[in-house]
Amino acid sequence: MNVSHENAQESLSTIQDVTVRTHRAIASAYASDLLILWGALWTIEFTTAHFYPAYAFHIFMVMSIVGCIGTAVIYWVFYSKALIREAGSQSAIWRIALFWILLYAYAALWHFLLAPFNGLQGNAFISTVAMFAFVVIGLWFGCRFMIILGLAVTIAVLIGFYLLTAYYCLWMALMGGGAILGTGLYTRLRWR
Amino acid sequence: MTQLDNIIHQPVRLKIMSSLVSLDQNEQVNFTYLRKLLKLTDGNLGAHLIKLEEAGYIKSKKTFIARKPRTFIRATGKGRDAFEGHVAALKEIIHSEK
Fold it and tell me: What value does the mean pLDDT of chain A take?
């Protein structure tokens, strides 16, 4: 079989291109809908909390419940579509769910042990815990954009906490919720 | 010197194998997902999958999920080895002509 230098180069480029597209499509299939959901919830939650600070905790609780229900629905739809299947993928989903539950249980414990927090501290704490989870999941699955997103939003939390205290919630609606939502939309539209 | 693989070298089959090999060994993909990803028609993808399956490079499995039939495809160990060999041969061609 005779293959020219150009043809060989072209074949290797095709392999590289398909490999990248496959990895991106998988990452998008797993993560984009969840990022869109949680990004939208963060944006609504922080914007509402800015204008109605007295109800901030109630808004946080309602949005968290909506988010958990939405996450379960998305996973159910994802499983029924079954784009990619892995031996033991069901156990992987349960392990991720358990990881989030345990992380938030520990976060609640630390919150209790380290209290009293004011509202701003409490919010920065829980937001950075969520971003820590993004980074861990990114490392776990070799998903670079999750690591970058987690670190970027963590930096946004710190900037808002130290430099923009009066506008913290609006800042987080834009740079936290907006960044998560934007990443979700980008990966869904461009990578799937 | 490693040999080019005639079956894999065909452009559509090269794409199919690139996608399957880039997954973990225990991962398998849905036929529909692969068709969309590679922008192929049902018939075209099906025909090339048969060729690859006859060579023992892939394995397909039919199953039901939520009462709907699904076909899952994965690269076999033999397919992964053949693909690796093919890639090595392509690299040799490029390096030998530099």
Answer: 88
**pLDDT tens-digit readout, B49-90:** 999 999 999 999 888 776 778 888 999 999 999 999 999 999
| Inter-chain contacts counted by CB atoms under 8 A, chains A and B | 81
Residue A22 has pLDDT above 70, yes or no: yes
Domain count, chain B: 1
The pLDDT of residue B10 is: 95
51-80 of A, contacting B, C-beta below 8 A = 79-80
- pLDDT for the residue A148: 95
Interface residue B4 vs chain A (CB under 8 A): yes
Q: Is there a contact between B83 and B21 (Cβ–Cβ < 8 Å)? A: yes
**Two tokens, residue B77:** 């160990």
Closest partner residue to A84 (CB to CB) among B15, B29, B38 is B29
Sign of CA dihedral A138, A143, A144, A149: negative
For chain A, the domains span 12-81+88-191
Task: Count the residues in chain B.
Answer: 98
* CA–CA separation, A184 and A148 (whole Å): 13
Range of the domain at B13: 6-96
- For B41, the 3-state DSSP assignment is coil
On whether residue B1 sits in a domain, the answer given is no
Q: Which of B9, B29, B97 sits opposite A5 (nearest CB)?
A: B97
CA distances to A82, A84, A170, B29 from B66, rounded to whole Å, are 10, 15, 43, 17
CATH number where B73 lies: 1.10.10.10
pTM: 0.77
Judge contact between B10 and B52, C-beta under 8 A. no
B95 in contact with A, Cβ within 8 Å: no
